[in-house]
Amino acid sequence: MTDIATTRAPARGDLSAVIKAYDVRGVVGEQIDAGLVRDVGAAMARLLRDETSDTPGVVVGHDMRPSSPELVEVFADGVTAHGLDVVNIGLASTDMLYFASGALGMPGAMFTASHNPARYNGIKLCRAGAAPIGADTGLMTIRQAIEQGVPAPAAATRRGSVHERAMCAEYAGYLRRLVDLSAARPLRVVVDAGNGMAGYTVPEVLGGLPLEVVAMYFELDGTFPNHEANPLDPANLVDLRKRVIVEGADIGLAFDGDADRCFVVDERGEPVSPSAITALVAVRELAKTPGSSVIHNCITSRAVPEIVAEHGGHPVRTRVGHSYIKQVMAETGAVFGGEHSAHYYFRDFWRADSGMLAALHVLAALGETDGPLSALMGDYERYVASGEVNSTVADTPAKIAEIARRYGARAGVRTDELDGLTVALPDGSWFNLRPSNTEPLLRLNVEAPDAEAMAALRDEVLAIVRA
Asked: Per-residue pLDDT tens for 427-462?
């Protein structure tokens, strides 16, 4: 292993394709290699030491991808060469790493590429208390340092040390104290871990509760032999939907690769909208802290702000993306936040997202009722949504401007540009059109009072976008 305590990292070219707005991510061996990851560790350590002289070190966890342990090792080498200690918690879900960052009061690094295919890996970085390190909060500083060549540490710098610490049991105990299922009625739960980290965390979190867990694809395998660990794609829910029906289960849960997102299937095998889950959890959190704010992004169902207001809360609308959600939660003191992508954020969890904590809330709510999940969620499903529809276009700003002109001229139409373009029609229908940050794509989300109106508006907008 290279002794980076006495050498300067070589200058690198443009890393914008790898070090992005929220994290570091790329193809292992092509975009992500040991040298780059060591540099990320060194640059992060320098950033933290420049900000405060008493940084306790960095806590590190990793998912089940074959490349993860080696990347953790070289990252730790970069951190310790610059004088900071490393606490390695080993295998972890992303929300377990956030728990460790909060519980230990340490900045963190999670090695995962989330739902991406097997050839990818990456790093999610945070400050102590799980505060995100994104483009505007340090990640661009790290990128620039690597591009210019990370300076070697001063000769007198003490090399840090690496310590190992298991935290899965502490993480599970913390979540179970936040949501008590001990008095819930017995439930049969099918869980599809997708060969990802939920196969490691679910037995610890759900074990011993009044739940019969039917395990699907719990074997940790970063090659994803059964299906991609991306439940946002309906194709990856097919196995779970069938198994719920075959088992006569009360509910199905599907987690993504790093288990920070959770998708829900009802007893009929029908997917439950993440917006409906957001509304349900919001009501439960508002019951504990009446009058609190609840965050929702601009493409969650409008049922969410309606239900929040009906239960005495204050709905706050924000842009899509975890860094924006967490920032607005900090500014408003919001008790909870949810996104259409099944990211759920909790004030009691350092404002970080946890699919497992959201799952516990849904299980608790179902366990408190006598009826099926479909009946419970019927109170939160008020409108019909298209889901995200992507279109490849040559000039995304021009298309958005054209849509704004066409719809903005209609009577009673309201538009805003909080995140892309949102257009609200007088009949209660609305749509949002957002450009992708990385591809020449426009992402369309449509919602309407019924399926016919949704399909008509979706097709009308797509005809203009794809003309």
From this structure: 999 999 999 866 678 999 999 999 999 999 999 999
Angle, in degrees to the nearest 10, between helices 198-206 and 355-367: 40
Residues that are catalytic: 114
Q: What are phi and psi of 33, to 5 degrees?
A: -140, 175
Does the pTM surpass 0.85? The reply is yes
In this prediction, residue 399 carries a pLDDT of: 94
User: Which tens digits make up the pLDDT trace of 332-390?
Assistant: 999 999 999 999 999 999 999 999 999 999 999 999 999 999 999 999 999 999 989 99
Q: Which residues of 186-205 are buried (b: 16+ CB within 10 A; e: fewer)?
A: ebbbbbbbbbbbbbbbbbbb
| Res. 9: pLDDT tops 70 | no
Cα–Cα distance for residue pair 247/265, rounded to 1 Å: 13
Helix 274-288 to helix 303-310 angle, to the nearest 10 degrees?
20
Contact 336, 346 (CB under 8 A): yes
Q: Give the CA dihedral 291, 292, 298, 301, nearest 10 degrees.
A: -60
Question: Beta 162-164 vs 384-385: how paired, if at all?
Answer: unpaired
Q: What is the pLDDT of residue 406?
A: 94
Q: Which residues pair with 346 in a beta bridge?
A: 336, 352
Residue 145 to residue 38: CA distance in whole angstroms = 12
Tell me what pLDDT residue 427 has. 94
Q: What is the DSSP letter of 416?
A: E
What would the DSSP string read from start to end of 133-167? --IIIIIHHHHHHHHH-PPPPPTTPPP--EEE---
Cα atoms in the 13 Å half-sphere on the side-chain side of 393: 24
Distance (Å, whole) CA 143 – CA 9: 13
pLDDT of 7 over the 90 cut: no
Find all residues with CB under 8 Å of 281, minimum gap 6, and list them: 336, 338, 344, 358, 361, 362
Looking at residue 185, its pLDDT comes to: 96
Q: Which pLDDT band, with edges at 50, 70 and 90, does 287 fall under?
A: very high
- Coil/strand/helix, residue 60: strand
Q: Which pLDDT score is estimated for 436?
A: 81
Number of Cβ within 10 Å of residue 245's Cβ equals: 14
On the 0-12 / 13-18 / 19+ scale of CB atoms within 10 A, 381 is: middle
CA distance 136 to 21: 8
Structure tokens at 157: 């710098």
Return the closest-CA partner of residue 336 out of 359, 315, 321. Answer: 315
Number of other residues whose CB lies within 10 A of the CB of residue 315: 18
